[in-house]
Amino acid sequence: MKNKTLIQILLGVAIVGLAVALYLSMTKPIKFNSEFTKRRDACAEKLKAIRTLEEAYKNTYGCYTGSFDTLINRLLNEDSLSVVNKNINYDRIPEDVDINEMTEADQIKAGYVSRVVEFVNPIENLRKSGKFNLTDEEIRNVRYVPYPRDRKYDFKLQAGFIEKSGYQMPVFECLVMMDDLLADLDHQLVVNKIDELVKNQRFPGWKVGDMTQTIVDGNFE
Q1: Domain range for residue 103?
Q2: Cα 189 from Cα 178, distance rounded (Å)
Q3: Measuring CA to CA, which residue among 54, 42, 208 is closest to residue 123?
Q4: How many CB atoms lie within 10 A of CB 104?
């Protein structure tokens, strides 16, 4: 009788163990996919901000940069963006003169129009556009990949030029590899996800820009 009771207890424990194992095997992929999506979205926000900063840098200096220190420090600390404002001197324009019928050069020569060149901070210019609202501190931290939480490391940033139609065209690329971003998650699920992406001819990470073509798209978009 005792042996029968012991066997029943062991069977019960085994059944519970199998149920737990089955539950975990079903929920682990679901949790992994949820975490995968969360990390993708967090990276996408930073990569979009980096792209905006790189575009502002190119508009200011004529090229992209492969250095976060240069990108962030120059944009935050230098008044390097040239802005030309056109002022119309209405009090100098005779009533019988229509400046719209004149070339801009003639308008300036006659004193009807003047141009004022100002040098402004590129970041402040971005903020005035209403399309960029990161604080200085957020800009300084945009270089860091948000996951894993216990590790602090930069996105990989490159910049240079490629030849296109006989011209040297500036390009940049900023990325994080999937095995770095997901390093603290289940190893086998990470391997499976990377294999899936490679088999579908997709880049095994998240990035904006490209060092081989003049695009600034992100593969998360």
Answers
A1: 81-120
A2: 12
A3: 54
A4: 12
Q: Where are the alpha helices (DSSP H) in the chain?
A: 2-61, 68-77, 104-109, 122-128, 136-141, 178-181, 187-199
Q: What is the pLDDT of residues 74-126, one digit of tens each?
A: 988 876 655 555 677 777 788 888 878 778 778 778 888 777 666 678 888 88
Contact 133, 120 (CB under 8 A): no
Domain count, the chain: 1
Question: Is the residue at 105 inside a domain?
Answer: yes
Backbone angles phi, psi at 107, to 5 degrees: -60, -45
Tell me the C-alpha distance between 107 and 115, whole Å.
11
Q: Return the DSSP state at 100.
A: G
Which helix (H) or strand (E) segment holds residue 158: the answer is strand 156-164
- Closest alpha carbon to 60 in 75, 73, 43: 75
